[in-house]
Every structure is written in C-alpha cells, then in structure tokens.
Design goal:
The complex is a heterodimer of chains A (about 110) and B (about 110). Chain A is an all-beta fold. Chain A contains no helices and eleven strands. In chain A, a hairpin with a 6-residue loop joins strand 4 and strand 5. Chain B has about 110 residues and is mostly beta strands. In chain B, the strands form two sheets. In chain B, strands 2, 4, 5, 9, 10 and 11 form a six-stranded mixed beta sheet that branches. Chain B has a five-stranded antiparallel beta sheet with strand order 1-3-8-7-6, with no helix packed on it. The chains are: A mainly beta (about 110), B mainly beta (about 110). Chains A and B meet through strand 5, strand 9 and strand 10 of A and strand 5, strand 9 and strand 10 of B.
Amino acid sequence: DTEVTQTPKHLVMGMTNKKSLKCEQHMGHRAMYWYKQKAKKPPELMFVYSYEKLSINESVPSRFSPECPNSSLLNLHLHALQPEDSALYLCASSPDRGDYGYTFGSGTRLTVV
Amino acid sequence: TQLLEQSPQFLSIQEGENLTVYCNSSSVFSSLQWYRQEPGEGPVLLVTVVTGGEVKKLKRLTFQFGDARKDSSLHITAAQPGDTGLYLCAGPMKTSYDKVIFGPGTSLSVIP
C-alpha cells in the first residue's frame, strides 16, 4: 500500500459545527503532516507529527486541533471555523524526516458557510 | 528566512514543444523536491535531488540541482497534454528537516 487516504473528500460545515478530517497511511511512515492550500497558492504547513508526537505547530488557531491516535492515523478536529478557513486540506506522510519527499493524500475540500 | 521562488508563474505551450521551469533561492538547501499537482488533487512527488550538480531523468522530464544547491530546474521535452498541472518545488528548512517549504508554483498548460 503506497497511498495516503483522506476522508471525506468534500465537507461543508457551518460556523458552529464540529467536524473531523481523517488521514490514514500504511506505509510505515513515521512522520505525518497537515497542510492547508488555498486556490492558486502553494500548500502551507500547519502541523507535523513525528513518531506520534506533535513536533511542529505553525501558530495555527486553536479552532484546528490535530490528533495522532497511532502511527497510521492522523485526525484534524475542526470547531467554530470561519469562512476564510475554506480550503483544500492535505495530509502527507514521509518515512522519517521530510527532506526526501512526501506522499500526499488527495485532500479534503472544506467549505465553511 | 529561506524562500523559494519559481519562474515562470504561468506557461501555456503547444503539444510537442520543450520547456524549462526554474526554482531559485538565495539559501542553500540540503535537497529539493519537485511535485506535480492536478486540480482538486494532492501534489505527487516527481523527484528529490540531493547532490549539487545532480541530474535526474524521469522519461521526458529532466531535473537538475545547481552546483551550489541554491537552485533547480525542470526541463520537459516534447510536452504532452497530460503534463498539464501545477509544478511545485519544495525544500526542507535548515532549522528543521521536518518543515518543508514550497515555492509558489508554475502553472503549465499544454494545448493539444
């Protein structure tokens, strides 16, 4: 299995809702990442988990809450989002460090209404 | 602050033409990665270059890492419509190899 699987593919949520994005990989990768990508822009790093521990938080607002239940799973819990949080949310993994490249999932297209 | 710049920002060419996309920085990178992203999908890793002066080929795509490890280029020979997409270069920060930054991307359109 050489894939990163993200669910759901599309999500529409209201500003008072709570939802979660899920990411799964079975490649034995030890680092997992959340990126946010707005239209016509490059991905922007949000969080890095290394060996199931949060190692980088790029000053992301607390309405985004990451969780790594085990080495294969990564969740992003969403609460009280704003319309400007609408974007493509990408999960990625790498064998250890990020300097040899990532495997990305297809992303979750999030719309906040 | 390490930054990556890419040029051109947009490129529209006819099928069969050749093209080169550039990725530049004023900082040294330990490695650089190239990705292609299609609309609504995640980026797909094409190659990682690690050694200064390194050249890697992937079918019609040729990647080069500058001798000083501050720049890289992607050359496509005889472009095809399937090459259409957003080409992103990326590299790890000196402060943390877990933190990979992306250039702004080159949007390529190959017209049949």
